[in-house]
Amino acid sequence: MAYPAEKQNPAPSADELRARIPGWGADLDPANRPSFPRERRDLDSGAHWDLPESQPQSGPRERSIEHKSMTPVFGTAQPLKGLSGVIRGYAYRRFSEGRAAHWLLLIVGDRVDAIESHLASFATTRPDNPITETGILSEFRRHPISSRYGRNRVDVNHTWLDPILVAGPWVLAGVVAFKVVRRLARR
Predict the structure, then answer these.
(1) Is residue 96 part of a domain?
(2) Torsion of the alpha carbons at 90, 169, 161 and 82, rounded to the nearest 10
(3) Which domain holds residue 84?
(4) pTM (2 decimals)?
(5) I want to staple 95 with a disulfide (CB 3.0 to 4.6 A). Which of 2, 9, 99, 138 is the partner?
(6) What is the CA radius of gyration of the chain?
(7) Is 99 within a domain?
(8) Which spans are transmembrane here (predicted)?
(9) Residue 92 in 3-state DSSP?
(10) How far apart are the first and last CA of the chain?
(11) In sequence order, which residues have a C-beta less than 8 Å from that of residue 179 and are 6 or more positions away?
């Protein structure tokens, strides 16, 4: 039994574990570690600094409250913006990464960002097209049943939920838009 409920007394020794489990403890001896020379502090690394120079920060960035300062290098490809940025910033300022609230707020921020991006696409000359961009057309052309069943695919378990998650927001937005237009037309 791999995980007995009772605590094993005495715990198996390192030699017993090494004999029983191939490869167990391979990195216990620092001399056997492939990265061991890099762990030595007496070698010349060629670095001219103790801490690398910090990347210039042009705007607010997310920083975990567990860290004293930003890392010297950080990503700038997705700056905080809109309501999703406010939600993400609040998650980082208020909650530790060890709290579920931190991660749940980041998930909410991600969903809000998706909605903001869809809405912003309508202000462009090429708005989002859920028919072609979600891959729904391939469901009818690429063997939808034979490619899913009989192959032990795990994602089959949530297949029933996919149309709701993908099409649901679009249908809801269409219903809301229809009601708004109809209400305005009646005035």
Answers:
(1) yes
(2) -20
(3) 79-151
(4) 0.60
(5) 99
(6) 27
(7) yes
(8) 160-181
(9) helix
(10) 74
(11) none
